[in-house]
Every structure is written in structure tokens, then in C-alpha cells.
Write a structure and sequence with these properties.
Blueprint: E1 2-9, H1 13-20, H2 25-30, E2 36-47, E3 50-59, E4 77-85, E5 90-97, E6 107-118, E7 122-133, H3 139-167
Antiparallel strand pairs: 1-7, 2-3, 3-4, 4-5, 5-6, 6-7
Length: 168
């Protein structure tokens, strides 16, 4: 399932970008995500106008009744690895579930993140990605639930970026 999430900010691109690459973004975002048991920054390396970042998530969401027999707590944890290119104002990201390696073939999620300058010192952020759950039956329903949670994370991140960018 493909998704696209767009946010517009009344903030110039350079100020918003400083918030995007801030080493405190993860910590500040965590306070806005009540469905996450934890979010940790495992890596944050800014070198040669590129940010290599790894965030580790563990969700704490109420599972629909049909899924409880199949979804274990370990399946609700993942690492997001992203590389942000300051010159391009863009990032590529990949999600790796923290499950047994032989189970990883059942899930894939990748995407991109782009900041674009708009008129009057405004900025647009476009997040595009795919979520693919390779399980029989109910995969489309599960993918929609996953994308709904992804949207909540990016909406919370947008609010956190607004806060950080106005402090810069």
C-alpha cells in the first residue's frame, strides 16, 4: 500500500531543516506519541552534509481482536534507518522490524522525505512510502491500520518540528 503525507509549515526551509536534523528531535517527538512504549535514538551522525540516523520504536497499541492471536509484542518493535541529504533537502528511509530474521520477509516499508520551499517563507514536507504486509488473508486491512499509525507518527513529528524550528 502506497501512502503520501504532506504538511505545510509557516517556517522557512532552512529553519525547518535545522529542526529535522536536530539531535533532540527524537526525544521531543516521544512526548507526543502516547501509543509508543518507547522511542530511542540509536544513531545520529552528521557528516559531509548528510545525516545518518537510526530510531528504535516499540509500539503499545491495542490490537484488534482478530490480530491478537497472531501478533506478538516483539512484532510491534522496529528500527527506522534514514539518510538525510542537506543539499537535496531529502531523505530516504527503511523500516526493519525487530523480529526473527526469517520473519522479516513478511513485512517491508520504505520511503522518502522531501522539504520544498514555498512562497512567503513557507515550507512543504512530503513523506511518501509503501507498507507491504505479505501474509495471507487480512493483509489489506492490516496495512491500512499500519498506515493510520504511520500518519499519527508523522503528524506528531510535524508538530514537534514546528516547536523546534521556532526555538532555533
Amino acid at each position: 500500500m502506497h501512502f503520501e503525507i504532506v504538511h505545510e509549515f509557516d517556517i522557512p526551509l532552512d529553519a525547518l531543516e535545522l529542526a529535522v536534523i536536530s539531535p533532540t528531535l527524537c526525544q521531543k517527538l516521544a512526548h507526543r506519541l502516547p501509543n509508543m512504549e518507547s522511542i530511542q535514538q540509536k544513531e545520529h551522525v552528521l557528516k559531509d552534509a548528510r545525516l545518518e540516523r537510526v530510531w528504535s520504536y516499540r509500539a503499545n497499541v491495542r490490537m484488534p481482536a482478530f490480530a491478537r492471536a497472531y501478533v506478538t509484542p516483539e512484532m510491534m518493535a522496529w528500527d527506522e534507518r534514514s539518510t538525510y541529504d542537506i543539499k537535496k533537502h531529502a531523505s530516504e528511509w527503511t523500516i526493519t522490524p525487530r523480529v526473527k530474521p526469517e520473519w522479516r520477509k513478511y513485512f517491508a516499508s520504505t520511503g522518502s522525505y522531501l522539504l520544498t520551499s514555498l512562497d512567503s517563507g513557507r515550507t512543504k514536507r512530503t513523506v511518501a512510502g509503501t507498507v507491504e504486509l505479505r501474509v495471507p488473508v487480512l493483509s489489506q486491512v492490516a496495512e491500512k491500520l499500519i498506515v493510520a499509525e504511520v500518519r499519527k507518527v508523522f503528524d506528531a513529528e510535524a508538530e514537534t518540528l514546528r516547536d523546534l524550528a521556532t526555538l532555533v
